[in-house]
Amino acid sequence: MADRKPIDSWLTDMDGVLIHEGVPIPGADAFLKKLRESGKPFLVLTNNSIYTPRDLHARLRRMGLDVPIENIWTSALATAQFLDDQRPEGTAYVIGEAGLTTALHDIGYILTDHEPDYVVLGETRTYSFEAMTKAVRLINDGARFICTNPDETGPSAEGALPATGAVAALITKATGKQPYFAGKPNPLMMRTGLNTIGAHSETSAMIGDRMDTDVLAGMEAGMQTFLVLTGLTRPEQVEDFPYRPSKVVDSIADLVDRI
């Protein structure tokens, strides 16, 4: 880390870093306040594609965290950016919520189940057998398979929920086709996010609570990485991975003075 350039821009995961089960993590407000006052470019990232940035801005504000809409980057936005680069003004059959459908509408995509260019799978709390069956048939007929993120489970008050990665595995099993995942740990999500704020990986840092998504994606995108211990990864698990974060800290509160 001594050989790295000073950090001029920050990317941070949301769940497990800034909030936990709908409650702000101590230090999150101070960290965001200092970022805003510093004028340094920053993004709050989430693999969850359910909500639009406007939705997330409102949800965070209710928790007492002020994150401007333009500083929120979701896997849905990364997916839309990828599709816009690959096949502008294309067509897609979408399984997902407003966060994903809005992002695709905003890039000029037509959502249809008639010979779409892509089947795009995102997060939803209402996965239906009918929609999955349609996705399987469209992929078998030639549609390309895209997923917003590979997370296999998501949290809820009652326990784990099957998430995008688990449903993608079902569709893959039925079609023999692997999807392209746009969200973390794909460094594409980091690079497209950095581009939106005009930042460079050499002078950027990624903060996350997961070794297998946040730290991996940040490292592969060429950024410094900070692992916080307020989320899923425990200290003893760090050594289980063949790569390491630049630094492990207890929480986001330990990074306020680094801005």
Description:
- This protein has 259 residues and is of the alpha/beta class.
- It has two domains: 9-47 and 184-258, HAD superfamily/HAD-like (Rossmann fold, 3-Layer(aba) Sandwich); 78-181, Rossmann fold.
- 33% of the residues lie in helices and 20% in strands.
- The chain contains eight helices and 15 strands.
- The strands form four sheets. A six-stranded parallel sheet has the order 5-4-1-13-14-15, sandwiched between helices.
- α7 crosses α8.
- The longest helix has 12 residues, at 75-86.
- The chain is globular, with a radius of gyration of 18 Å.
- GO terms for molecular function: metal ion binding; phosphatase activity.
- It holds the Pfam family Hydrolase_6.
- The active site is at 13 (nucleophile), 15 (proton donor).
- Mg(2+) binds at residues 13, 15, 209.
Which descriptors apply to this entry?
259 residues, alpha/beta, Rossmann fold, six-stranded parallel beta sheet, 8 helices, 33% helix, globular, carbohydrate metabolism
The CATH architecture of the largest domain can be given as: 3-Layer(aba) Sandwich
Termini Cα gap: 15 Å
- Return Rg in Å: 18 Å
**What is the residue-mean pLDDT, rounded to a whole number?**
95
Report the strand count: 15
Number of helices: 8
Q: Report on the biggest sheet.
A: 6 strands, parallel
Indicate the low-confidence ranges by residue numbers. none
Any idea what the shape is?
A: globular
Q: How much strand?
A: 15-25%
CATH H level, superfamily name of the largest domain: HAD superfamily/HAD-like
Helix content: 25-40%
CATH class annotation of the largest domain: Alpha Beta
Strand order of the largest sheet: 5-4-1-13-14-15
The domain tally reads: 2
CATH level 3 topology of the largest domain: Rossmann fold
Oligomer: single chain
Order of helices and strands: EEEHEHEHEHEEHEEEHEHEHEE
Class by alpha and beta content: alpha/beta
